[in-house]
Design brief:
By secondary structure, the protein is of the alpha/beta class. 26% of the residues lie in helices and 22% in strands. It is built from 6 helices and 11 strands. The protein has helices at residues 16-22, 35-38, 72-77, 94-107, 140-151, 174-186, and strands at residues 5-6, 45-47, 65-66, 82-84, 111-113, 119-123, 126-134, 157-163, 190-194, 202-205, 208-211. A 6-stranded mixed beta sheet has the order 6-7-8-9-11-10, with helices on one face. It has a 3-stranded parallel beta sheet with strand order 2-4-5, with helices on one face. Helix 5 (140-151) packs parallel to helix 6. The relative contact order is 0.12.
């Protein structure tokens, strides 16, 4: 979910900001078609790919995203309870942008995790721990295994999110498979993946799902 636009074209035709303005900034609009589904589940987890801030850009990439802090309400209205911030755009507006993003979603009643931050909550009497990683870098697998073992208990559920893989490629890479399985071996009950912008397969490994993209 990129709730904003590249800051260099904010307000131009076709941008998120322009569409929101044309709809009267109706925060319930973006998820209107799926809120009936998301509202019935136990926990909706989204990848928030881009800051929600009044900060300044900190990178000079092809796409540098940002949205209004008020757009955090889109998540709440859409029955999204939790967002991952471990991805390649969450830091586009630097540490201040990240802090403002966390504050914005929390103000809207939405939790966040990733980049060393965990979300721990009780869902229907079960402790659910969410941790997230910008996958593939050196030492990532070792860090994931260590963190899962740290959080795993006999009676809880640890969900590991990876921002990984190759954009536009429908097949998971060997690194994805290796890291996903390592997370399950360490005690994770579910692995969620995104970044390729296309669907990849779901693997059932030792009775647990690895949702690659």
């Amino acid at each position: 979910c990129t709730l904003g636009s590249d800051y260099r074209v904010t307000g131009a035709d076709g941008t998120f900001d322009k569409a929101m303005a044309e709809a009267g900034d109706d925060l319930s609009g973006p998820f209107a078609g799926v809120v009936s589904v998301l509202g019935q589940d136990d926990l909706t987890i989204a990848n928030l790919e881009g800051p929600l801030s009044h900060s300044k850009p900190a990178v000079a990439h092809t796409f540098v995203f940002n949205g209004k802090p008020e757009y955090a309400g889109v998540l709440a209205k859409g029955s999204v309870e939790l967002v991952n911030l471990a991805n390649n755009h969450a830091g586009d507006f630097g540490p201040d942008g990240m802090k403002q993003t966390i504050a914005s979603v929390e103000k809207a009643g939405v939790g966040s995790f990733g980049n060393g931050r965990a979300d721990v909550r009780t869902v229907k009497g079960i402790e659910v721990v969410n941790i997230g990683y910008l996958g593939g870098g050196k030492g990532t697998k070792e860090r994931v295994v260590k963190d899962v073992k740290k959080w795993k208990k006999a009676d809880n559920l640890v969900v590991v999110t990876f921002h990984w893989g190759v954009e536009g490629y429908n097949v998971p890479t060997d690194d994805q498979r290796s890291m996903g399985r390592a997370a399950i071996d360490a005690g994770a009950g579910l692995v969620l993946g995104h970044h390729p912008h296309v669907l990849q397969g779901i693997e059932t490994y030792k009775g647990h799902h690895i949702v690659y993209s």
